[in-house]
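Researcher: Let's do a round of design. I'm pasting the C-alpha cells now; please hold your answer until I've finished.
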C-alpha cells in the first residue's frame, strides 16, 4: 500500500475521522471513569475494535460480569456483523492474509463506506479497501487513547456523549441514500426494523429485524441485482461506461 492509495482513501474516511475522534474520546473517558487507564483503552481497541461492544464492555467491567454473560451480550450486540460480512464476500475475495484484518475491522461505519466505495482509476481496489479499514481503525485508536489520557488528567461529565456514534452513522447513511441507485433495500430495512420493534419490543428487536431483512433481501436479490446492472456506472464507479462512451471523461 503506497501513499497514492492512502491519499485516495483519506477523503472518503473524513466523516469517520470526525466521528471516531468524538466517540472514541467518549469511550476513553468512560473507561477511565470506570478505573481503567489509557493502556486498557489501547488494548481494547487493538483486540476488540467494536464501538458498541466496547461501550458495553465498560459497564461489564465496572460490574464484574461473568465471562458467559460477556460472551452472550457481545454476540447479541454484534450479531449484525454476520450480515455485513456475507454482503462483502466478493469484495474481500482475493485479498489474501489481509482478508482476516478486513473481517476484524468491519465496523458499522467501515461497512457503510466499503459497501459502495469504488477505487479511483489507477489504484488497486484491494489496497484501497484495506487503506479505508486501516485509517478508520487508526482514528478509533487515537480518539480512545486521547479520551483515556484526558480522563486521567481532567474530570468530565460523559452524559449523552455516546450519542455521537448514532449521529455519525446517520451522516454516513444520508450519503449512502443520496448515492444509491435503489432505495428499496433501505426502505425494507426500515420497515423490518419498525415491525420488529412493534412485535418484539426494544430489548429483543435486533435478531428478528436482522432475520427479516436477510430473508427479504435474499428473495429480492435477482430484482435488486438487475436494477443495479441497469444503473450506469454503479458497479465500477463509471469505468465501464467510460469505456463504452456513455459517460464523458
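Researcher: That's everything. Go ahead.
Model: Designed sequence:
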Amino acid at each position: 500500500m503506497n501513499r497514492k492509495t492512502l491519499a485516495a482513501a483519506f477523503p472518503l474516511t473524513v466523516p469517520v475521522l470526525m466521528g471516531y475522534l468524538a466517540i472514541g474520546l467518549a469511550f476513553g473517558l468512560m473507561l477511565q471513569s470506570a478505573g481503567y487507564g489509557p493502556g486498557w483503552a489501547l488494548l481494547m481497541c487493538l483486540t476488540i475494535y467494536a464501538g458498541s461492544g466496547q461501550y458495553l464492555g465498560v459497564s461489564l467491567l465496572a460490574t464484574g460480569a461473568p465471562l458467559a454473560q460477556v460472551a452472550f451480550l457481545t454476540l447479541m450486540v454484534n450479531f449484525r456483523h454476520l450480515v455485513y460480512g456475507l454482503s462483502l464476500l466478493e469484495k474481500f475475495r482475493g485479498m489474501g492474509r489481509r482478508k482476516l484484518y478486513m473481517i476484524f475491522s468491519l465496523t458499522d461505519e467501515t461497512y457503510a463506506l466499503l459497501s459502495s466505495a469504488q477505487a479511483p482509476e489507477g489504484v488497486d481496489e484491494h489496497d484501497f479497501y484495506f487503506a479505508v479499514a486501516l485509517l478508520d481503525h487508526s482514528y478509533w485508536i487515537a480518539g480512545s487513547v486521547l479520551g483515556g489520557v484526558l480522563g486521567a488528567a481532567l474530570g468530565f461529565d460523559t452524559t449523552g456523549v455516546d450519542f455521537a456514534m448514532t449521529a455519525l452513522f446517520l451522516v454516513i447513511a444520508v450519503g449512502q441514500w443520496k448515492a444509491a441507485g435503489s432505495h428499496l433495500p433501505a426502505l425494507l430495512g426500515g420497515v423490518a426494523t419498525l415491525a420488529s420493534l412493534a412485535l418484539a419490543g426494544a430489548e429483543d428487536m435486533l435478531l428478528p429485524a436482522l432475520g427479516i431483512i436477510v430473508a427479504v433481501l435474499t428473495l429480492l436479490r435477482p430484482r435488486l441485482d438487475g436494477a443495479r446492472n441497469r444503473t450506469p456506472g454503479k458497479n465500477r464507479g463509471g469505468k465501464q461506461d467510460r469505456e463504452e462512451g456513455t459517460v464523458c471523461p
